[in-house]
Amino acid sequence: MLESIRSLLLAEYSVSQWVLVFFMYSFAGWCWEVLLYLVRQKKFVNRGFLTGPILPIYGFGALCVLLTCVPVKENVLAVALLGTLAASLLEYVTGFAMERLFHVRYWDYSNRPFNLHGYICLLSVGTWAVFSAVIVCVVHPFFQPYVRLIPPVLAGVLAGALSVFAVIDTVFAVRRALDLRALLESMERYARELEALYGGLDSISDRIGEMIRAFAEQVDERREELSSGLEQITSARDRVVQLLAQKRIGLEEGVRERFANFESILSEVADFLPDVSALRAEIEAAKERYDRQSEVLREARRRRLSHAKKILRGNPSAASRGYSGALDQLRRAWDDKREEQKNQKRPS
After folding, report:
1. pTM above 0.85, yes or no
2. DSSP string, 232-282
3. How would residue 96 be classed by pLDDT, with cut points 50, 70 and 90?
């Protein structure tokens, strides 16, 4: 069976001509994706993983359909069924492998009905069914004689040149994707370190609160003697309670605000508490650690954001299950940077 398919394929085209067919469908897939995005979002986006105008998933999908449907190419229903199975399997495996390798889904159907792990869905399956029938029964028969007219030597040169450019493009694209993966991982590590630091600040908050509450109890016992300082101490105590009860939304903003609150509270009540120099030193060490970690993240983000921008721009629907927070933060950073550049270009 396989030998007969191989014979049919080589009888139809040479290897170089099949390579040209692959690039033809890869380019057609890129045009399709760009057109769809242009219609929906009203702007041009160079879609896909690569920089060049090709989407290899469509080229490999078309080859899978053509190879699979050779024995049944006269039966449209069989072509649609086999082509859909082959192309959907390719899409699922490719999506799974890319997410495992790069921590990012370059297409995500998780919000679509009847999806399988977000890699394929009913709509994508239906699209492949239509594409399979159109490719095998309409497009391929139309282009077949023109492809055969390409001289073998010319076909070999074109196939070789396109393959070299595609390999180079892929190498750089993989490097960008690995940079993005490393950036997402560093941002997640930073988030965990920030959580741990925030927990340490909770401990400091509790200790400040305990010190103030203990002293406030002494104040209650000696109300008349220290009546002049009672209102100030009670106010400081209430501020700590408010600080502990506040809703913490943004971690980075929350950390900066809490450092400021600690300093303000300790300054106000320093005259009424025991020696707080050790506590001040601990807070200062925590702040230095936070500033150091923040600078590391900013440097990593600055260095890798330019490499990741092609991926973020060409795959606006990309998602990540394990690094969704970091990816969203990265998108916001890139959007802010673009907005800043746009404002700088506007005449004042």
Report:
1. no
2. HHHHHHHHHHHHHHS----HHHHHHHHHHHHHHHHHHHGGGSS--HHHHHH
3. very high
